[in-house]
Amino acid sequence: MTDTVTFDEGLIKALREAENIIFFTGAGASAESGVPTFRTGTDSLWVDFDVEDYATLDGFNRNPQKVWQWYKGRRENMAALQPNVAHHVIARWQEKAPRVTVITQNIDNFHQDAGSDLVIELHGNIHHFKCLNDHPVESSSVDNSEEPPLCEICGSLVRPDVVWFNEPLPQEAFDHAEMFSRECSVFIAVGCSMEVQPAAFLPAFAASGGAYLVQINPEASIFDKYAYTLRGKAGEVLPQLWQAVWGESFN
Ligand code: BJW
Q1: Which ligand 1 atom is at minimum distance from the Cα of 54?
Q2: Which residue among 24, 37, 128 is best mutated to probe the pocket of ligand 1, counting the most ligand atoms within 8 A of its Cβ?
Q3: Residue 197 CA, closest ligand 1 atom number
């Protein structure tokens, strides 16, 4: 249980007055929904699964069936889970500020499920598919398949439309993320280890535009020295932050 968090008055003022806020989310934002993180804690994904086998194109080419099944299992687990209070606070923030942008590294669709209108997905979406030649593939036609299907257009294998290591991020998504980061007045990172580039470079764009950098994380991260840190779990800190900024309890 996170203790009651004390908020800096400057932060509260900045948030009340902010015209343009970014919530930048990582796996920690979905942790309290039950989605495992990647690198922290004993049940995180890269403890049990070799990243080279499961999150690279080489791994997929070596064993498409194994990777397909892994994503199918994760998709099914996520389908049984729901957005948590952190996603809901972030979604409701758009009622209060003129522009709220969610930039997420997560692939679970929980921000959209919670009602956030402007969500930029940097690492794709586990519910979307494409083939190895980048043709989009309708989810309903492949979702339940036990093995990677073949693309109806080119015959290549179908894969989840997520970003694996050594693959470029979707250009338009990253361009928008960079533009919004440069323009924002408050940039709040929620549950991000900041270890994966180029996503982890976005706070630098925000800082170059003069934004107030904030992070919410129960653990130390390499971002501690750059951001005003709210130490605690997203699902506990964000409702307290809402209360402190808007003077009403979040429910
Ligand atoms: C809580 C909490 C709670 C817990 N509340 N908080 C050497 C140096 C620098 C860079 C590189 C390098 N060698 C290679 C690179 C590049 C590489 C990279 O960054 N590697 C580093 C790991 C070293 N990057 C790439 O390869 C990227 N592409 C690229 O660079 O392309 C270049 C290119 C250009 C042109 C042509 C070709 C290529 C792609 C990166 C793709 C990342 N993909 C994944 C998998 C997505 C699909 C899937 O889910 O299967 O994305 S990996 C994984 O990491 C996932 C995440 O989005 C991403 C970030 O992780 P995140 O979200 O920060 O999670 P964790 O687990 O790390 O941290 C969770 C945090 O939450 C922790 O801090 C906890 O404390 C906290 N937390 N509970 C709040 N309740």
Answers
A1: 50
A2: 37
A3: 19
The pLDDT of residue 168 is: 98
Atom in ligand 1 nearest the alpha carbon of residue 233? 5
Rounded to whole angstroms, the Cα distance separating 20 from 211 reads 10
Task: Kindly report the CATH number that applies to the domain delimited by 36-80+126-162.
Answer: 3.30.1600.10
Q: How confident is the model at residue 2 (pLDDT cuts 50, 70, 90)?
A: low
In tens, the pLDDT along 112-152 reads: 999 999 999 999 999 999 999 999 999 988 988 999 999 99
Q: What is the pTM of this model?
A: 0.97
Greatest pairwise CA separation for the chain in angstroms: 59
Domain boundaries, the chain: 1-34+82-123+169-251, 36-80+126-162
Per the annotation, the verdict on 88 as an active-site residue is: no
CB 27 within 8 A of CB 38: yes
> For residue 24, how far is its CA from the centre of ligand 1 (angstroms)?
13
**HSE-up of 1 (CA within 13 Å, CB side)?**
2
Give the burial string for 61-83 (b: 16+ CB within 10 Å, else e).
eeebeebbebbbebbeebeeeeb
Q: How is domain 1-34+82-123+169-251 classified at the CATH fold level?
A: Rossmann fold (3.40.50)
Whether pLDDT at 167 is above 80 = yes
State in Å: Cα 17 to ligand 1 middle: 32
- Specify the pLDDT at position 41: 80
Q: What is the mean pLDDT of residues 24-31?
A: 98
